[in-house]
Amino acid sequence: MRALIGGIGPDWVLKPDVALPALRLGAVRVRVVAAALNRADLYMLTGTYSPKLKPGDVYPAGMEFAGVVETSSPLAPSMPVGTRVMGVTMGAFADYALCDPRMLLAIPDGMTFEQAACLPVALATEHDALVTQAGFVAGQSVLVVGGTTSIGLVAIQMAKALGASTVIATTTSSAKRGAMLAAGADVAINTASESLVEAVLAATDGKGVDITLDHLGGEQFGLLPAVTRTQGTIVNIGRLAGPVANLDLDQVSFRRQRLIGTTFSIRTPEELGEVCMALHASVMPALADGKFTPLIDSVYPVHAALEAANRLRDNAALGKILLSFADAPEQPVQRAPVHNFFGSIAQLGYVVKDIDASIAGFVRSGIGPWFLLRGVQPENFTYKGAPSAMAMDVAVANSGDIQIEIITPVNDAPSMYRDFLDAGREGLQHFAYWSRDYQALYERALAAGFSVGQEGQLGGPSGRFAYLETEHHAGTCVEISDLGGAKAALFDYVKKAAQHWDGSNAVIVIDPAMLASH
Predict the structure, then answer these.
(1) What is the mean pLDDT of residues 113-126?
(2) In what order do the strands lie in the sheet with 209-214?
(3) Which end of the chain is less congested by CB atoms within 10 angstroms, N or C?
(4) How far is CA 193 from CA 107, 174, 188, 196, 377, in A?
């Protein structure tokens, strides 16, 4: 495939025969149709921007794209092969890109690939700044400094779409003023010929705006406390005019304002995934309703990438500059064989309301003997990352090489078991994989994009377990478990007991303390 590579020289180098990105469990491979340029792409070329997503000094260039899902992922069941998507990933300037599914968004009907490619970075950046960081609520007023930058125009539309009472935006070009009004700004200010402070105060009855989104930094940043209301919020997003500003801290303090700085360069893939996922609740419905109209400046063929980069360097663009990959022929892709990432299923886990009744049912089916532990509290147990005092009754028995586990939570402490029952479900809740190299399997799962719903340990540090949020059927998930120490000894005993069971002594109650004392 074709791909633009950075880090070889002062500009990207077009390679015509780069291997397609290798399939990775959990990731989605997308056939790119259009990709958008960002200032960050140029900063990476000069070495002044090095995000955590960047794999090295020589790297696949580009970070924003739109295209079609070519290889789907079990982590994104709503995006099967053929789904039109837009998203953020390193390596977007290529015919194919490999993506974390958390950073993908479905393209609404009626939107072109070129329009969609303009949006992912801007939507994520502006929503994170306006809503997550600044705490915007409908009815507040918003000032967008740098309103004719590509993401500034999206900021204007987002503020209006989410219910801002007044949106004020700035530019230094009279020719570009109309673009801000077309995007939905109520007031457009040309700071090259107008006083920013006088114009904003006149538009807000002298109070200033509730939230200021600043994309420029530089000398003008020192004026922003004067145009932001008492107890208002100023968020610096970009520093196109420079990173240095003179600021009157007395004014900030007397007006009890919040100053927030934000950048994506230091954020982990998990953090970026959360930022993109936050768009689903309010931004994506507004996008589907047509409340965002991306502004395209120009579209270049991939072999003219240097011209595109120079247009961005010259600050000549109004809207997004795009690279087109639409002329790439769809090529037959050699599918990699699918291997079981976790190994072989070792256990089927049931969550039920009445563990004794469930045991009796299995015994009637010829499965036993059952080893029953009452009131088990795993050590270091966390649910969604927070400590939980969950307690449960647990019973295990083998049917051949497969272990059957039955769990009943016995208190109301949060857990995935409690979620399962509270949702009105009962029965198979997880299937488990065991490993004697648990840490390696755990790290592989996280690297592949799986999220941990709950985890803890039984019988000490060699008895760790984690439940991954990998719903395949309603409520079911994957458990990975450390097969060591006391737990390994118990499981071995359970398997041997089943091999010689004559139907008597169907339930054996054991003290949970035996796990810790092994």
Answers:
(1) 95
(2) 187-190, 166-171, 141-145, 209-214, 228-236, 258-261
(3) C
(4) 40, 9, 12, 9, 69
